[in-house]
């Protein structure tokens, strides 16, 4: 079967491919074997000493890395620790979170090239970026052709979290009216159609692969177009209601 690219999950490599030669060689060998680019997750040591970033790298079999997305929405106490200088001396276990992660600023849409289809605008969200409205809406506004979701979730194998993650992904697919190819490091992956239906899911904790064909789409759903104005209206209405209630309460007291 002719492929456009191979998709791996968030944190597919457990070493920085730019600091560990064996990891980089394995990625390069995988792309060379597939004869198509590999889009994979890694943790890189940057941009400063004792900091890191969670990234998705587009690795071409001939050119190496040609595009990347850096995760924007980080998990507190998992990827970074707020007020670390204060908290860590009081709770030494905080050190288990590792080096502080630094968020990215990109939209998650990458302009890449595949050997079969040519130019492609590929959109990705990494793990719980799916839960952030602004991140998902910006992704849609920048008009990717194809959407993927890359997650880890292996630390939560056997719990409800992997399925919770998949449910969030299904809701987003229906909201955007776009297919998602969802891949996770613990093996619970699959194709989500534009109505939120899950197809050919893999078994959690079991090595597997799937080959999916998805349409290239464009356009925005009413849910995406109206989301920000509706949210702003609801916030203003809530604040206005609170102020009105406080005013009436003070009037009754006087």
Point out poorly predicted stretches. Answer: none
> Which sequence of SSEs, written as H and E, runs from N to C?
EHEEEHEEEHEHEEEH
Helical fraction equals 25-40%
Mean pLDDT: 92
Shape descriptor: globular
Note the gap between the termini. Answer: 78 Å
The number of helical runs is 5
Concise account of the structure shown:
By secondary structure, this protein is α/β, with parallel strands linked by helices. The protein is built from five helices and eleven strands, in the order βαβββαβββαβαβββα. The strands form two sheets. A six-stranded mixed sheet has the order 6-7-8-9-10-11, with helices on one face. Strands 1, 2, 3, 4 and 5 form a five-stranded mixed sheet that branches.
Relevant terms:
single chain, alpha/beta, 6-stranded mixed sheet
How would you characterize this protein structure?
- With 254 residues, the chain is α/β, with parallel strands linked by helices.
- It is built from five helices and eleven strands.
- The longest helix has 32 residues, at 222-253.
- The protein is globular, with a radius of gyration of 21 Å.
- The chain starts with 5 loop residues before the first strand and ends with a helix.
- The relative contact order is 0.11.
